[in-house]
Write a structure and sequence with these properties.
Blueprint lengths: L9 H41 L6 H27 L17 H9 L2 H12 L1 H22 L1 H4 L12 H4 L6 H17 L1 H20 L1 H43 L1 H21 L1 H29 L2 H6 L1 H11 L4 E4 L8 H22 L4 E8 L2 E8 L13 H10 L3 E5 L6 E7 L3
Parallel strand pairs: 1-2
Antiparallel strand pairs: 2-3, 3-5, 4-5
Helix pairs in contact: 1-2, 1-4, 1-5, 1-9, 2-3, 2-4, 2-9, 4-9, 5-8, 5-9, 10-16, 11-12, 14-15, 15-16
Length: 434
């Protein structure tokens, strides 16, 4: 087995030193701050609790709570660089703008996060003292040991003084003494980064748990609920879009191919009767039936393109939209960049957005030109269809675009329609790419 050792480059070394400085100042400044906060918080809480029977205790508690909030805000700002993340500012309960004095006083006292801020102000001295002791010890040991050669000569020594190297039987010379303390300093220096980092993380994680833990848990629950609601909405939209597509397919088959097939059967029956006494009329009837057959096949091909256009599956979205624009009854200005193959549902949804929009333009817009654009953005794939027609399109229930909006929502996207009267219509679908 081969072990690869990654060299410590200058960039990484500078990042380690920078983080060491951040952690050190965090711990060294945190200790005096912890003394200040515990004095102010305990004093304010004790006075407020003791004077509560005289009513004046409530305003004192109010001031103490807001004082704890201020220290908590400062601590969140200080803790962020240590954890290499920004601690979010939590939500605090607020009284209404027309609330009276006592309501403004009592509302903060019912806020759970405010009491957690106060609890942190009281208890933070425990991890702060622990971290402060380690940081001061390791820095003193590293700096003092490595610089022994510079100051050892200045320490007075008499006949009764015995140094640690001599007690350990290592010798009593100045060189031995300097070498021994330098070795101790080297041990402290080599372990300085992990020790300082470790105790700084202990203090920072304690602060995060009390000052942002509840808020972060609330945010995760909220995001989970949003994801659940979004998934439910997508499922509902998919079911609705599927039902709309099936109803439309059923209507199109009933109004088109089914009627033609019924007529085809009648024509063939009539031709069968005509062959015996009027062959010429029978041949004319068969010719008409053949024309009906060709038209029926064309309608079935058009319906199959509405279900799963083969060109989209075989050659991709760009080719499918080019073919779609070529069949449009209204001139289309198509701007589609070269695209790699996307997810099947995204390509299909983008195709149907354009297809349905072009169909609506041909039927209702009375437009002279349509512009179709596809482009990537930070939000996903933007599909834009814009015409210069009469406008008036809407996503309201009962309009033709409702099913299209459901289809886009089922793919995880969003559809917007801007269509003022006599100002044309602009349809924009945003589809996710991941």
């Amino acid at each position: 087995m081969t072990t690869t050792i990654t060299p410590l480059g200058p960039g990484r070394f500078s990042r380690i030193l920078r983080q060491l400085g951040i952690d050190t100042q965090y711990v060294l400044l945190g200790f005096p701050l912890s003394i200040i906060t515990i004095v102010l918080c305990v004093t304010g809480f004790s006075l407020g609790l003791g004077l509560m029977v005289l009513t004046v205790g409530f305003p004192i508690l109010f001031v103490t709570i807001f004082q704890a909030r201020g220290f908590a805000t400062l601590e969140r700002a200080r803790t962020g660089p240590v954890l290499r993340t920004q601690l979010p500012h939590p939500y605090y309960k607020k009284a209404g703008p027309r609330a009276g004095f006592w309501r403004r006083t009592f509302v903060p006292l019912t806020d759970g996060q405010s009491w957690l801020d106060l609890l942190h102000g009281v208890l933070r001295i425990i991890p702060s003292t622990f971290a402060f002791a380690f940081v001061v010890t390791w820095w003193a040991g590293a700096l003092g040991g490595l610089t022994t050669v510079l100051w050892d000569w200045s320490i007075p020594r008499g006949p009764g003084n015995t140094d640690l190297p001599e007690l350990l039987g290592l010798g009593s010379g100045a060189g031995t003494r300097v070498l021994f303390h330098t070795a101790i300093g080297l041990v402290f220096a080599l372990t300085l980064v992990p020790v300082v980092r470790g105790v700084a993380l202990i203090e920072a994680l304690f602060a995060r748990a009390l000052l942002s833990g509840v808020n972060e848990l609330r945010e995760r629950i909220y995001e989970a609920e949003r994801s659940r609601d979004r998934a439910r909405a997508q499922t509902t939209a998919a079911v609705s879009a599927e039902a709309t597509a099936l109803r439309r397919l059923e209507r199109d088959i009933h109004d088109g191919p089914q009627q033609r097939l019924v007529r085809l059967a009648m024509d063939l029956g009539r031709a069968d009767l005509q062959f015996d006494h009027d062959p010429a009329a029978a041949r004319a009837t068969v010719a008409e039936a053949l024309a009906q057959t060709r038209e029926t096949l064309e309608e079935l091909r058009a319906l199959s393109r509405g279900i799963a256009p083969p060109i989209l599956v075989d050659r991709g979205l760009r080719a499918a939209l080019t073919a779609l624009a070529g069949r449009s009854l209204v001139p289309v200005d198509l701007e589609v960049p070269e695209l790699e193959r996307l997810a099947d549902n995204i390509e299909t949804t983008a195709y149907f957005v354009v297809a349905e929009a072009l169909t609506n333009v041909a039927k209702h817009a009375h437009a002279s030109e349509v512009k179709v654009t596809l482009q990537r953005s930070a939000y996903g794939m933007l599909v834009t269809v814009e015409d210069d027609g009469v406008g008036g399109a809407s996503l309201a229930k009962g309009h033709g675009l409702t099913g299209l909006a459901d289809r886009v929502r089922a793919a995880g996207g969003e559809l917007t329609v801007t269509s003022a009267l006599d100002a044309g219509t602009k349809i924009v679908a945003i589809l996710p790419l991941s």
